[in-house]
Amino acid sequence: MMNERRMIRISKYLSKHLRHEPERIGITLDEHGWVPVDVLLRAAADHGFTITAAELWQVVEANDKQRYAIEDGRIRASQGHSVSVDLDLPVLEPPEVLYHGTVGRFVAAIKEEGLRPMNRHHVHLSPDRGTATRVGSRRGVPVVLVVAAGAMHADGHAFRRSANGVWLVDQVPPGYLRFPS
């Protein structure tokens, strides 16, 4: 059983190379973000970061946010890519309300521009307030915004849900947001 520090280190390494910089270790993601597990493990070892198959499985299985998926001998990040991939997720009807965790310094811009994907492909929305609070708290004191997802869907906005339950949408215009008072 590996310690938590090692687990976090491997998870961050996977995030960096499966979401943002696969070329840095010489791997190529397919159009849907997948790479063979053996190719990833060999590339990591070749670049001085050896990960055993058992460690990889443990990180994937134990990750509380289910950031990674392994299927048919391949691995990918569930969402959050800055590199071009099509996660091939179906359009789904979202719940009436979803949530977005942020911090106070971004609220003024969000009130004006809405939620934009920034350096990612989609805006990430949480199915519950608790998850959004945890997301927002990574950058400081969290502010949780309420998203009228049902109204957005009715107005033609396409929603997708990643394997770990995160809802993805291209943008959220300000009119669909409720801000805490």
TrEMBL record:
Pfam families: PTS_2-RNA (PF01885)
The protein's enzyme class: transferase
EC number annotated for this UniProt entry: 2.7.1.-
UniProt keyword annotations, A-Z: NAD, Transferase
Database matches in InterPro entries: Ptrans_KptA/Tpt1, RNA_2'-PTrans_C, RNA_2'-PTrans_KptA, RNA_2'-PTrans_N
Keyword presence, Ligase: no
Superkingdom classification of source: Bacteria
Family membership noted in the UniProt record: Belongs to the KptA/TPT1 family.
HAMAP family recorded: KptA
Function (record text): Removes the 2'-phosphate from RNA via an intermediate in which the phosphate is ADP-ribosylated by NAD followed by a presumed transesterification to release the RNA and generate ADP-ribose 1''-2''-cyclic phosphate (APPR>P). May function as an ADP-ribosylase.
Protein's UniProt name: Probable RNA 2'-phosphotransferase
Gene behind this protein: kptA
